[in-house]
Each structure stands twice: as structure tokens, then as C-alpha cells.
Amino acid sequence: MDAERILAFRLARVGLAGQGPRGLAGAAACPASDFSRDAGLLAVAARRPSLTRVEYDAAVDGADLVVAHVVRGAIHVLAPADFALFGRALLATRDDELAAQIGRQFTRITAEHDIAPGAALAEVTEATQAALAGGAALDKVGLHQALRERVRPELMPWCKGCKSHHVAPMLWRYATIKAGARLDAERRYTLGRPGRNPPAAEAVRRFLGYYGPGTTGGFAEWAGVPRPTAGRLWQEVEDELAEAGGGWILRADTEALDAPPAADGVRFIPPGDPYLAKPNRALLAPAADLRKRLFRPVASPGAVLKEGRLAGLWRSKAKGRTAEITVEKLGRIARADLEPEAERVAALKDADGLTLVVG
User: 0.85 cut: is pTM over it?
Assistant: First the structure.
């Protein structure tokens, strides 16, 4: 199966082709990374072009959109109905798998101090819930201080960056998942309402719906779950799957994969957009040097899509109240086609003016 057809299917499934206007929850149906500044806003707005920053912030504060640590312990924006699915439901329940999920530092600390991984997570979760009780809203510094007052020292290694002791980075992030914490528009942690956990195997269906054809390993990496956990969840849905394109897809999606909708127009999507997630990277940018420039450990550019294909890289920086957006073209694309998207991004960044540089 050719890469273009797979990418076209995935482009439509992450909300960038083949559908008309959508609501906020629909625009955030596939969790979008909010690691980079304004990335979540820009990802949702790429699927709902009329969105303003004021509307987005109000939706985040009102929990019509949820911004929280979910898959891989990373901050994403997602639909409220999926808060538990991509958060609590994916937490490993076995101590060895939980240690692997949270990471090496956590594994080392719990082993060194003979603390059961589940007990360590429970302790920090309870401390997080206590710190945020009564409607409290704490920024990261405030949350760390609140946890210092409630968590045993063994779980708080020295942080060179912060020059202080605080709860191990991935441990406190996963504790916010179990506690059901979310972030408001001012980037403060507050308790949310994830609701009851749905069956975790639903996450496999969602993954294949967004990124099929896929594999168990691809799901494990995307969802941030250990391979054994991924394997058990995969087995729960394998009767619903069909082989395709070197992987597996939901049988219900085979017709959509065979004839995906065409994309049109130009889109600027931010770093961390669902379409730029790891399952798509080798297909989007087959050349290793281009992948290295597009998918950096930090400060990645955004992508310019033309009719669904990668047509350029874009970056934005503020110069006073003016947004300077620089586009590096990777193919033929007219400046006139770039200008409306650049203006939309500048408006979302609250800029009073725009300087568009095309090279």
C-alpha cells in the first residue's frame, strides 16, 4: 500500500481533511501536544479556523476542552469525554509495568529505597489531590512546594535545573494523571473530572482510527504504555482487525483506507500536531536529513501542508507586537497561498502586525 494513501487516510482521521466545520471537542478528538507555546491552540484552530484565543482560553477554563498530562505523561489538549481514556485508563496496574511506564529514574528511586512503584504513585497522587482540594489552582512551582510538604524525601531527588529537591519529574506528572488534574488557561493545575475509566482497549481502536495501519509496538510508543500492557490491550480487539499496509487496521475502516478523502488548500500546523506524531514521520519526510530538521528534540518548526502534502516548514517569533513568520519552502507554493494562514496564526498569537518571510 502506498504511503500517500496511508497519509491521506490519517490526515482525514486527525481532522485535517474530508470534513466540514466541527465543534471544539471534535477539533480535539485526537490528542494534540501542548508542549510548545500555543501548540494546542494552533492545533485546534487548524481544525476550526474561526477559533480565537479568547474562545480557546474560555473553553479550557470551562473544561469544554481539557489540557492535561495524559499519553506518555505529556501535556495534551483533548476532548473532555476522552480525559479518562487517554489518562487514568492507560496507567499500568502491575508494579513492574508501572515502573517501566513512568521511567528509569522512577524505577531506580523505588528500587533503591525499596518502595513499591504503586505505593509511590499512590502517595504522590494523594498529595496532589490534597494540594488541589477545595478548588485550588497552583502553577508548577506552587504544586512542587505543596508536594514537598506532603511527600517523603526519598521520592524527591535533587533537580539541577531547579536547584531544589522536588518529586521526580515523571512521577509527579503521572500523579497528576491519576489525581485527575488538568491545567487552566493560566497554566495552573486544578482538579478536573475525568469520570469513570472506560475499557483501556478503546485506546487501541482510537490509535488505529488515527494512525492505521499500525502495530502493537507503534501503539505502545504512542500511548506511552509498556509492551506487555500494549499486547494485552491489543489482544482484546484483534478480532476486529484486518491486515493492511504492513500493519493492522480496524475492519470497519478498510473502505476509508482504500478511498480516503482528498485534502485541499494550505494549512499551517504546529509542532506537536497529531499529524506530525511519530507514526507519520517517516512517511511525511522520507529523507533522514529533513526528518532531523522537522522533528527536533526541542524547538521544532511547524509544517506547511499543501493539499495534505508537506510543502514547507514554518517558525514564528515576536518582534514587539509584530509576529514574524518565516516559511522555508520544500516545494512549489505561492506566497499568496501562504498569506491567509500566516495572518490566521498571527491573530491567534495576539499580534498587531505580521511580517511574512518566505525562502
Answer: yes
174: helix, strand or coil: helix
Are 211 and 280 contacting, i.e. CB atoms less than 8 angstroms apart?
A: yes
User: Sheet holding 302-306: strands in order across?
Assistant: 266-269, 302-306, 309-319, 322-329, 353-358
Residue 147 CB burial class (10 angstroms; 0-12, 13-18, ≥19) = buried
> What domains appear along the chain, each with residue ranges and CATH number?
88-191 (1.10.10), 266-358 (no CATH)
**Residue 131 · residue 150 · CB < 8 Å:** yes
Nearest to 269 by CA among 237, 309, 218: 309
Torsion sign across C-alpha atoms 53, 56, 62, 63: negative
Cβ atoms within 10 Å, residue 301: 19
Give dist(CA 304, CA 322) in Å, integer.
Answer: 21
Name the grid cell of 11.
Answer: 490526515
Q: Residue 9: is it exposed, middle or buried by C-beta count within 10 angstroms (0-12/13-18/19+)?
A: buried
Give the helix/strand (H/E) hosting 75.
strand 75-78
pLDDT single digits (tens) 4-49: 999 999 999 999 996 655 789 999 999 999 988 899 999 999 999 9
